[in-house]
């Protein structure tokens, strides 16, 4: 099916070339790219916390100095951001390099955004989902929650998620689902995810059964991300040697090339069209979630409107050049153009 569609598309392009319309066709495609990169983003990530309560072995964020001035975003700055983006954006995430449940104002933040008609998602490790926190989640109007569980047994999970308790996580998830259902709430939808590695590949079936027993709405497998920016040789070697799974049957963004090196599968155009910005706890606007060190700051919402930053010549030039070709080191290991291959939904 895919071959037939590609063949038909190539035939149409060849016909245009034969008709002498190549210049017109290329101009049209270029205009489409420019239009796409200029549209306001539908989804913006807001870093409400830049620190975490765990020290996971596969996480780069907790192993390096990210250069943030603030550990937590203030409620005042969050409200300023939401007021500015509400007319142009309908979805935000409140998680980035830290654990959002560490921010004392997180539930007020979520409520403020949902009251503005914005859909809010949260990625959490779930360890801090105490009875009080679960009530805060359910009262806040949070739309979606993804919980990371990178091992389906106590030994595997706690060997990867250093500082966590497997029993506590399972208890927290089960209680959240039970309390949500008792209150007959449709939200938040709760996903359970596991990054596939050599450490847990043998637990995929156990993970699925556990997810079903807990009653989560969806469970899926994620591919490992190896961050080579500001290269940490020991970190990269550890992930490549002890964690990376070279498999075509499981989700993966990498393959092993002829030289034996691990390389991104497909380095075509940016799959997110450079339209997935992040706002750090300091208010800096970054082009995407792979710029964890904030090397490409395009403005700051503490003293600028997001719309002004987005429409600035600096940001436009960045989006345009990045959409055409991946020029930065962080682009070499982020997402393949066909990014749908990096996750596998179990149910």
Please describe the topology of this protein.
Elements: H1 2-18, H2 22-38, E1 43-46, H3 75-85, E2 91-93, H4 106-115, E3 119-124, H5 131-140, E4 144-148, H6 154-160, H7 166-182, E5 189-195, H8 204-214, E6 218-222, H9 233-243, E7 254-256, E8 262-264, E9 278-279, E10 285-286, H10 306-310, H11 313-324, E11 343-345
Parallel strand pairs: 1-2, 1-9, 2-3, 3-4, 4-5, 5-6
Antiparallel strand pairs: 6-11, 7-8, 9-10
Helix pairs in contact: 2-11, 3-4, 4-5, 5-7
How would you characterize this protein structure?
The radius of gyration is 21 Å and the shape is globular. Helix 4 (about 105-115) links the parallel strand 2 (about 90-95) and strand 3. It has about 350 residues and is α/β, with parallel strands linked by helices. It contains eleven helices and eleven strands. The chain has helices at about 1-20, 20-40, 75-85, 105-115, 130-140, 155-160, 165-180, 205-215, 235-245, 305-310, 315-325, and strands spanning about 45, 90-95, 120-125, 145-150, 190-195, 220, 255, 260-265, 280, 285, 345. Helix 2 (about 20-40) packs across helix 11, helix 3 runs parallel beside helix 4 and helix 5 (about 130-140) packs across helix 7 (about 165-180). It has a nine-stranded mixed sheet, with helices on one face. The protein has a two-stranded antiparallel sheet with strand order 7-8.
Q: How would you summarize this macromolecular structure in one to three sentences?
A:
The protein has 347 residues and is an alpha/beta fold. The protein has helices at residues 2-18, 22-38, 75-85, 106-115, 131-140, 154-160, 166-182, 204-214, 233-243, 306-310, 313-324; strands spanning 43-46, 91-93, 119-124, 144-148, 189-195, 218-222, 254-256, 262-264, 278-279, 285-286, 343-345.
């Amino acid at each position: 099916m895919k071959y037939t569609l590609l063949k038909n598309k190539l035939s149409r392009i060849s016909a245009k070339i034969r008709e002498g319309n190549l210049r017109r066709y290329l101009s049209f495609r270029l205009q489409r790219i420019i239009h796409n990169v200029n549209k306001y983003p539908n989804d913006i990530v807001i870093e409400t916390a830049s620190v975490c309560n765990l020290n996971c072995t596969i996480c780069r964020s907790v192993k390096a100095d990210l250069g943030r001035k603030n550990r937590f975003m203030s409620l005042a700055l969050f409200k300023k951001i939401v007021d500015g983006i509400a007319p142009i954006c309908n979805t935000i995430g409140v998680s980035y390099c830290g654990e959002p449940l560490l921010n004392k104002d997180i539930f007020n933040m979520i409520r403020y955004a949902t009251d503005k008609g914005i859909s809010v998602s949260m990625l959490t490790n779930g360890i801090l989902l105490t009875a009080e926190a679960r009530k805060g989640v359910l009262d806040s109007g949070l739309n979606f929650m993804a919980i990371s569980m990178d091992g389906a047994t106590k030994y595997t999970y706690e060997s990867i998620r250093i500082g966590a308790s497997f029993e506590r996580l399972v208890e927290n998830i089960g209680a959240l689902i039970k309390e949500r259902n008792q209150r007959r709430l449709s939200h938040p939808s709760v996903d359970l995810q596991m990054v596939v590695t050599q450490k847990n590949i043998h637990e995929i079936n156990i993970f699925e059964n556990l997810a079903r027993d807990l009653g989560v709405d969806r469970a899926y497998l994620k591919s490992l991300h190896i961050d080579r920016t500001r290269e940490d040789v020991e970190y990269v070697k550890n992930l490549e040697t002890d964690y990376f799974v070279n498999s075509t049957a499981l989700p993966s963004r990498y393959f092993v090339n002829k030289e034996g090196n691990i390389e991104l599968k497909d380095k075509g155009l940016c799959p997110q069209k450079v339209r997935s910005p992040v706002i750090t706890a300091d208010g800096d606007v970054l082009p995407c979630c792979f710029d964890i060190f904030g090397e490409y700051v395009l403005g700051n919402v503490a003293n600028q409107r997001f719309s002004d930053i987005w429409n600035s010549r600096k940001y436009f030039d960045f989006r345009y050049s990045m959409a055409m070709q991946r020029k930065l080191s962080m682009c070499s290991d982020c997402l393949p153009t066909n990014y749908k291959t990096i996750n596998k939904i179990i149910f």
